[in-house]
Amino acid sequence: MEFFTDATIQLLKALSNICGSYGLGIIFLTIIVRVLMWPLSVSQQRSMKVMQKMQPKMKMIQERYKDDPQVMQRKMMEFYKENNFNPMGGCFPVLIQMPIFILLYTALISPQFIDLAGNAKFLFINRLDATIRGTSARSFDNTFTVGKTANFNLGKKATVYFSDGSVEKDVKVKASKDNLRYMNQIIPGENVEFKLALNAFQVDTFENKTITGAEVEITNVNARESENVEFKRSGDILTADIKTIQANEKMNLDVLALVLFFGLSMFFATKVMTLTNKNSKQQLDPQQEAMQKTMGRTMPIFLTATFFFVPIPAGVLLYLVVSNLFQIGQTFIINKQLDAAEEKSEVIDVKPEK
Known about the structure:
Layout: H1 2-19, H2 22-36, H3 38-64, H4 69-82, H5 92-108, H6 111-117, E1 133-134, E2 143-146, E3 152-162, E4 167-172, E5 180-181, E6 192-197, E7 211-220, E8 225-234, E9 237-246, E10 250-251, H7 253-278, H8 286-306, H9 314-343
Helix pairs in contact: 1-2, 1-5, 2-9, 3-4, 3-9, 7-8, 7-9
């Protein structure tokens, strides 16, 4: 997973260099993903139209075999096969976007991105790594801003000191979480003690030397802050103490606005989809139409409410908002193309159930 996270960060860095900012880089990434998924989106909307045409015959099968569910299921599968219809075809675009969403999420909350561009601004967004609730922590002031608990991550590089007075810079730090130890229960205002394993470093080139200390960047994931921490040897481990202060949680209004924009954009995206179905020559079954309307109302509300409690970075929300806006325009264009094709009899005719 770390490889894919690093690759995502490097991709965002490359796109930001092309576009001029990380915010524009995320928007460009969104457009690339949606364009690459265009054929799947066409297939999804074509499947919905075919489903509408098949609906009356599907209902007949359900009515005819309602007393024998197994036979009904077999007849439905045969009907799908005869019409070259995959009932799961409409789910592919959503399923493909999930790994992209997860990669972008893990990239933007990673210490690497926080160090690289966590404080990057875009339009009204103050930090692309900020979540709806955050703290006003400052990096590299020799103090960690903490609550009752905190989650710390090691940086990827370290400066290592040896007993002969030599120093090695940019030493690779192993990714294992077991290399850094600290108490999960922290008292704000009191020092937090870190313990670092001696084998946390890649020491292939200086195996015969004795490590006496190290300087490693540690990131407080909760507060999105990083500090250069100096470790000294104590027996078979390295230890360090660093000051802490009480974290004052606040509502990030810019991220709150993004969450609301996401809810509105998702509502209009589902509304556009519903309207195009309603205007189709083939009308949905009343029960299915009622279900679509209910889903169109409840899903945007449910997901928006979820983002009030799940800490989603602003950059990920920006991706979702732009993706929804793109989908609105995409839906209009694809449906016009499908309607034109239907008038020319290019849409598959539904074969009767045998």
